[in-house]
Each structure stands twice: as C-alpha cells, then as structure tokens.
C-alpha cells in the first residue's frame, strides 16, 4: 500500500504540469496581429490619415496593390 501512496504524487504533479503547459502554450506560440492599415501607411512614409479611420481590414498583394474593407460610413 505504501508504494501506491508514493506513486500518486508524481502522477498528480505530472497531471497538473501537463494541464498548465496546455493552457499556457497557445499564449506563447500565437503570432502577433498584423499591423493596421494606418500603421502600414506610416511605415511606407505616407500620412496615417490618408485612409479613413473606418478602414478595419486590408489585403496586400505581392505586387504592392492593396484592397481595403471598412465599416459603414453612413
């Protein structure tokens, strides 16, 4: 019976450790969000206010063209 009691602590520790790792690992491995279109404008030497603040998403092609999506301007 003593052997059963001593094996419970390592198993419980392993269970707690694996649970913590599974909860923390997505936080450590997630990539940062892409920059906003306004930050991208500034990084290219353009004024931040070139596009309206309602622009929420964009796509940037390999050839440099972009497409922006915005919320309703009404």
Structure description:
It is a single chain. Strands 1-2 form a two-stranded antiparallel sheet. The mean pLDDT is 76. It has two helices and two strands, in the order ααββ. The protein is 47% helix and 15% strand. The protein has a domain at 37-74. Strand 1 (55-60) and strand 2 form a beta hairpin. The protein has helices at 2-29, 37-43, and strands at 55-60, 66-70. The longest helix is centred in the N-terminal third of the chain and has 28 residues, at 2-29. It is rod-shaped and about 65 Å long. The chain is an alpha+beta fold.
Shape call: rod-shaped
What are the segments in which pLDDT stays under 50 over at least 5 consecutive residues? none
What structural category do the secondary elements indicate?
alpha+beta
Give Rg in angstroms: 25 Å
Output the strand order for the largest sheet: 1-2
- Report the sheet with the most strands, covering strand number, pairing sense and barrel closure: 2 strands, antiparallel
Estimate the helix proportion, in percent.
40-55%
H-E order: HHEE
Kindly estimate the percentage of residues that lie in beta strands according to DSSP: 5-15%
The count of strands amounts to 2
End-to-end CA span: 75 Å
* Mean of all residue-level pLDDT scores: 76
Number of helices: 2
